Amino acid sequence: MSELFPDRPADLTLPRREAGLAPLVLTLIELIRQLMEAQVIRQLDAELLTEQQIAQAAESLQAMEAQVLRLCEIFEIDPKDLNLDLGEVGKLLPDRGQYYPGQQGTQTSILELLDRLLNTGVVLEGEIDLGVANLDLIHARIFLLLTTRNKPPC
Amino acid sequence: MYVFALVTQPVDLTLTGIAQGNVVFFGTGPVRAVVQPNLDLETELQAETQTLEAVLAHDRVIQTLFCHTTVLPLRFGTVFTTPQVLLEHLQARQDQYLNRIQTLRDQGEFTLSLSAQTAPTATVTGQGRDYFRAKKDQFTQVLRDQEQAQQEWDALVQGLHHHFHAQIQARTDRLFILVPRPHWEQLAPWLAQQTLNHWQYTLTGPGAPFHFV
Question: Can you tell me the distance from the alpha carbon of B205 to that of B160, in angstroms, rounded to the nearest whole number?
Fold first, then answer.
């Protein structure tokens, strides 16, 4: 029984080579988590949240971070590796403490770009054709408005 | 003809070049080239390990020369098609190279590698508003640390100019410092006395003035 259900967390770890796409998936989860955190901070600074909402948001964000760290432990991933270096564009995520919404960041990152885009609002318009073997099968016209919540509609 | 460096006078040294080849002094004028004749560099650099060994050999020849005379180092991979072309080149630019070698006389290059110690390592925790306040505090602290680190960097560069009359080539994470020989022994103790709370540093040198040619 104890072999089937080991009680030591270390027994859950997988060899790094078996982690596969886990680092990429966890990186994207961390990006979304930090993006949501940035939106909470903006709404908090604009005094749009109640104390209860602030408490719930803080708890949820920390729980998500703890979960990501736990998965890093299982897959033997260094949490510092949850990032992408995009060369001249900067990193996907800023280093710890290097960005705060509404403030001038000290290093460029995709997170900061997305946060500012969401804060300002951005409209994406385009068409997508999906198909195989030179056959157009699906045609999609997209008109997408991306903006943070609690902003008046355009 | 592969060229390592330029000097003003031959040195009585046995130098081993790339792939254990012989290194000789070439030229008749006041500026001599340190060369390895009959080296087919393309053949020697077919494997990555050979390239690394060749780069190290290039560096070793120049550093050995530096210990005995003033040297004007050339980039790795400097090749002249024939001895005649090299000879004509040396004659055409003789004054220019002589002046440069004169300015480098009794000067050594130090490398000061600097690593900023400004990033917080602690994960922010807290309940409710305290959690987000701690996030802002962390950002503010990082900004303050970076400002102080920049001030320390600027003071360091000014101090090097002032105390050692040093020429400096700055990169994002290192300083190449050209220091006159009388100050070589003083540099490390002086650095140890400077306020560098936000930096970890490593000093190496003196060596050939690769970044001041």
Answer: 15
Task: Output phi, psi for A91, to 5 deg.
Answer: -95, 165
Burial of A1 (0-12, 13-18, 19+ CB in 10 A): exposed
- Write out the two tokens for B73: 């180092």
Beta strands B32-36 and B107-116, pairing class:
unpaired
What's the CA gap between A132 and B166, in Å, rounded?
A: 66
DSSP state of B76: T
pTM for the whole thing?
A: 0.72
Which residues on adjacent β-strands are paired with residue B115? Answer: B200
**Residue A126 to chain B, least CA–CA distance (Å):** 37
Residue A146: closest CA among A41, A40, A26, A35: A35
CA angle B68, B71, B75 (to 5 degrees): 135
Neighbours of A3 (CB within 10 A): 6
Q: Which residue type, as a one-letter code, is found at position B61?
A: V
Nearest to A97 among B129, B131, B142 (CB): B142
Which phi and psi (to 5°) does residue A123 adopt? -110, 125
The stretch B20-33 carries a mean pLDDT of: 91
- With a cut of 80, say whether residue A7 has pLDDT above it: no
- Order of strands across the sheet with B167-170? B167-170, B174-180, B107-116, B199-207
Q: Indicate yes or no: CB of A97 within 8 angstroms of CB of B138.
A: yes
Residue B40 Cα distances to B18, B43, B79, B120, angstroms: 10, 6, 10, 51
Interface probe for A, chosen from B125, B137, B139, B198 (most Cβ of A below 10 Å), is B139
Q: How confident is the model at residue A133 (pLDDT cuts 50, 70, 90)?
A: confident
Q: Angle at Cα B29 formed by Cα B26 and Cα B34, nearest 5°?
A: 25
pLDDT > 80? residue A18? no
pLDDT value at residue A11: 41
pLDDT digits (tens, 9 = 90+) for B62-102: 999 999 999 999 999 999 999 999 999 999 999 999 999 99
Helix (H) or strand (E) holding B182: none
Structure tokens at B31: 């500026």
